[in-house]
Design goal:
The protein contains eight helices and 15 strands. By secondary structure, it is an alpha/beta fold. Strands 7-4-1-8-13-10-14 form a seven-stranded mixed sheet. Strands 2-3 form a two-stranded antiparallel sheet. A two-stranded antiparallel sheet has the order 5-6.
Length: about 260
């Protein structure tokens, strides 16, 4: 199943990193978070990607070209000038990098991926700045069972502050960054039917507004509830949190 990933936003809340590169290329454990997301999808057998580029899209193109050219071992015969490449990259993916305009809104970026996503029917969609442990097999099965146009993964938002359990004047427990026990937000792991494109007018359309609102009103937007790990990378604090999980060997999304 094909996967569309939006990787064109400015990432202004992470300006410490995104002044020089797009947010999906901010690194966790020495690799862009975009790669982590793609690696996770590929573990479920979804390895055909269409990436919507915008802000500093050339940075993403350059990274993939460098990875293709420099990622392998090589043997050089200085006498004959022969260069032999020894393919060592285990990521046997198809990656299409699609220019969707620097100022195009989220809905417009999705619509510009029509030639790369619509031809095979049902497709997957996500943003290039969040990782999760959502079971993609269960997500797709859930989507196929209800037969609606779009399934949105609903997640519990991570708390921005430490949680205090207070008894009298004493703090009984302190948890640094729990996920809230109640409340759901858009986790941006979608399963979609091509009919979705009919609800996106053009480049100025914000996907989170008109298309999703209309689909909800028509009963065509269904929630798949995910109670496990989910984390977006909106701020430098989020980035450091994900980096610490990776360095400590506790990154829940690392299934490879």
């Amino acid at each position: 199943m094909k996967v569309g990933i939006l990787a064109g936003g400015y990432g202004s809340r992470l300006a410490e990193e995104t002044d020089i590169r797009p947010k999906p290329m901010v690194e966790i454990g020495g690799m862009p978070i975009l790669w982590h997301i793609m690696k996770y999808y590929a573990e479920f057998g979804h390895d055909d990607f269409a990436i919507a580029l915008g802000y500093r899209g050339e940075y993403i193109k350059r990274w993939w070209l460098d990875r293709l050219e420099m990622g392998d071992d090589i043997s050089i015969d200085m006498r004959t000038r022969e260069v032999i490449r020894h393919h060592t990259d285990s990521d046997c993916w198809r990656v299409r990098l699609v220019e969707t305009g620097e100022s195009t809104n989220t809905g417009g970026r999705i619509k510009r991926l029509i030639p790369h996503l619509a031809d095979d029917g049902t497709f997957l969609l996500t943003w290039g700045d969040g990782v999760s442990t959502v079971d993609l097999d269960e997500l797709v099965d859930f989507h196929k069972h209800h037969g609606k146009i779009i399934t949105m993964t609903a997640v519990h938002p991570p708390s921005r502050f430490g949680h205090l359990d207070i008894e009298g004047d004493y703090i009984h427990t302190f948890t640094e960054k729990p996920q809230m026990a109640e409340g759901w937000i858009n986790g941006a792991f979608f399963v979609c039917e091509p009919e979705l494109f009919d609800f996106i007018e053009g480049d100025d359309t914000q996907f989170e507004h008109e298309p999703l609102t209309t689909l909800a009103e028509k009963g065509e937007l269904v929630a798949y509830r995910h109670d496990g790990f989910w984390q977006c990378m909106d701020t430098l604090r989020d980035k450091r949190y994900l980096e610490n999980l990776w360095q400590d060997g506790e990154a829940p999304w690392r299934t490879w």
